[in-house]
Amino acid sequence: MKVTIKPRSGKPFELDLDAQASVEDLKKSIHKQVPRLYGDRQRLTFGEKKVTLVDGKKLSDYDIKDKDEISLKDLGPQIGWRTVFLVEYFGPILFHYLMYTYADLIHGVTFERSHMQKVAFFLALCHYVKRELETMFVHRFSHGTMPARNIFKNSAHYWILGGVFIAYFIYSPAFGAQTEAGKALSGDTRTLVLGVLFAIAELCNGQVHLILRNLRPAGTRVRKIPYGLGFSFVSCPNYFFETMAWTVFSILTSHWSCWVFTIVATGQMYIWAIKKHKQYRKEFPEYPKSRKAMFPFIS
């Protein structure tokens, strides 16, 4: 059959396709016709309602027939989500390291790091190294890419707010070992309890990521109802446990910069959780009605 491809800019063109061709087959044919438009760069829609054609489906699933017209949008240069995450989490690792190690040079004062600063530095590095390892070995992405230009916006949250903004203040001389603030926040029992709570939250977060990974076989976009740690109460326990980890970190440091980061991050995760919660309810009629989006028994 012949279908007409109508780009947003440029002249329409025709393609010869098998009646049982898949969306991926169509994208490959478009790529041959327009080499710069590789598959992840294409957004294809069909019909008056502009239904998006999804990989893994056949054209016949959308009732596309001979001489039909399909709209094509160029999404622009793309970058893989795995690369995006690796770049995002590298920033805080770099800035926490530099601002802790070279705090004397940055602040122009030589001082001894307090116990709180040492523990905060260790916990921050552990968190972001864990995220890097999960990105490389755990996460399976339902969407392969995003527009390359968005990496700057996505990275700003982690590099600036989670990196520079926090590290500059909490590793400053104001919280050094000889200051009253540094001594007040460095009690052995206090630090130990908060460190353990942070570790528990991080381990629970990691376990949820493993549960989500095992729901989706490699190379597929399969979606199932998740069960296990935290899922009896909320749709996104990974976001809940991460919020708990950063709340503990904020209590440990007792600095407003950490609380700002925690509040902003929690707000963003809550928006994502609401969206995923609605998707689960829409996609699975049998989805547990007692589950909340992110906060148990609340919302």
TrEMBL record:
- Residue stretches in coiled coil: none
Q: How does it sit in the membrane?
A: Multi-pass membrane protein
Q: In which pathway does it act?
A: Lipid metabolism; fatty acid biosynthesis
Name the enzyme group at the top EC level. Answer: oxidoreductase
Q: What is its main location?
A: endoplasmic reticulum
Q: Name one GO biological process term.
A: very long-chain fatty acid biosynthetic process
Q: Which residues form the Ubiquitin-like domain?
A: 1-72
Parts of the chain that traverse the membrane: 156-172, 192-212, 224-241, 253-273
Protein localization:
Endoplasmic reticulum membrane
What CDD domains would the database entry show?
A: Ubl_TECR_like
**GO cellular component terms, semicolon-separated:** endoplasmic reticulum membrane
Q: Which UniProt keywords apply?
A: Endoplasmic reticulum, Fatty acid biosynthesis, Fatty acid metabolism, Lipid biosynthesis, Lipid metabolism, Membrane, NADP, Oxidoreductase, Transmembrane, Transmembrane helix
Recorded hits in InterPro entries, A to Z, give:
3-oxo-5_a-steroid_4-DH_C, SRD5A/TECR, Ubiquitin-like_dom, Ubiquitin-like_domsf
UniProt keyword annotation of NADP present: yes
Q: What does the record give as EC number? A: 1.3.1.93
The record lists the catalysed reaction(s) as: a very-long-chain 2,3-saturated fatty acyl-CoA + NADP(+) = a very-long-chain (2E)-enoyl-CoA + NADPH + H(+)
- Its biological function? Catalyzes the last of the four reactions of the long-chain fatty acids elongation cycle. This endoplasmic reticulum-bound enzymatic process, allows the addition of 2 carbons to the chain of long- and very long-chain fatty acids/VLCFAs per cycle. This enzyme reduces the trans-2,3-enoyl-CoA fatty acid intermediate to an acyl-CoA that can be further elongated by entering a new cycle of elongation. Thereby, it participates in the production of VLCFAs of different chain lengths that are involved in multiple biological processes as precursors of membrane lipids and lipid mediators.
In terms of PANTHER family, this protein maps to: 3-OXO-5-ALPHA-STEROID 4-DEHYDROGENASE (PTHR10556), VERY-LONG-CHAIN ENOYL-COA REDUCTASE (PTHR10556:SF28)
What protein name does the entry list?
Answer: very-long-chain enoyl-CoA reductase
